[in-house]
């Protein structure tokens, strides 16, 4: 499948009409032209088939928690369409190690897996969403401010405006994620926004480690939605073959 057709095809599972309408807006048409050009001259991550994997794994009507990232990992074999997630045999990035570390504190039954595939949590209602969905290989933020942010803003708004009116937890780790939440004007009487430093090894000690976000998220979900996330769903993940 070509880049052009993949960007607006069934690879994205968005049944909401407002999101389908995004594909024909001027900003998205400009973004599509940019990405077609990028694919002709550079390696782009994630693979075309994985750009929208977050939408297939976590239908918007099932979202309980939104984890906002910036742009995909930009090294070989890392990005697969979920923020912070990597597929085996890729080694765990530092940010994900710190996420596992905090999970171990918040959820005593959580035993950090050896792999970084967050698909089980995506299927459980955690939307691992980057605000920018593609990146040029080995060049961080190379596709930022090209239009993806407008599309992912629309995704978040679709979650906020669901007909079921259920509240959602937002993990706003780091200033960019916090600014996204502020820009969207999230109603914090209805939704829970948990803010802290980013889990990156460069900043995790400034407030991510010890933030208690996973415990707080489940406490709030149980109170408001009579539900929670089974974070231990990752624990059964198989280690990579040696």
UniProtKB/TrEMBL annotation:
It is an enzyme of class 3 (hydrolase). NCBIfam families: PRK05254.1-1, PRK05254.1-2, PRK05254.1-5, ung. The lineage of its organism: Eukaryota, Fungi, Dikarya, Basidiomycota, Agaricomycotina. Its EC number is 3.2.2.27. This is Uracil-DNA glycosylase. Belongs to the uracil-DNA glycosylase (UDG) superfamily. UNG family. Residues 56-221 form the Uracil-DNA glycosylase-like domain. Excises uracil residues from the DNA which can arise as a result of misincorporation of dUMP residues by DNA polymerase or due to deamination of cytosine. CDD domains: UDG-F1-like. The gene is UNG1. Transmembrane segments: none annotated.
């Amino acid at each position: 499948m070509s880049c052009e057709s993949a960007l607006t095809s069934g690879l994205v599972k968005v049944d909401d009409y407002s999101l389908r309408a995004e594909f024909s807006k001027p900003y998205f048409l400009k973004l599509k032209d940019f990405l077609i050009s990028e694919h002709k001259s550079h390696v782009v991550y994630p693979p075309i088939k994985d750009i929208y994997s977050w939408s297939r794994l976590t239908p918007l009507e099932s979202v309980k928690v939104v984890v906002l990232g910036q742009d995909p990992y930009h090294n070989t074999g890392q990005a697969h369409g979920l923020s912070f997630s990597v597929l085996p045999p890729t080694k765990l990035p530092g940010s994900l190690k710190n996420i596992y570390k905090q999970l171990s504190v918040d959820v005593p039954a959580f035993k950090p897996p050896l792999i970084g595939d967050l698909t089980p949590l995506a299927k459980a209602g955690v939307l691992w969403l980057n605000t920018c969905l593609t990146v040029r290989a080995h060049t961080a933020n190379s596709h930022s401010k090209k239009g993806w942010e407008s599309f992912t803003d629309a995704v978040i708004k679709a979650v906020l405006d669901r007909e079921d009116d259920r509240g959602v937890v937002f993990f706003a780790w780091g200033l960019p994620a916090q600014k996204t939440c502020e820009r969207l004007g999230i109603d914090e009487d209805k939704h829970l926004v948990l803010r802290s430093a980013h889990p990156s090894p460069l900043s995790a000690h400034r407030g991510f480690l010890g933030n208690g976000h996973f415990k707080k998220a489940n406490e709030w979900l149980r109170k408001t939605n009579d539900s929670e996330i089974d974070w231990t769903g990752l624990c059964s993940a198989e280690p990579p073959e040696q």
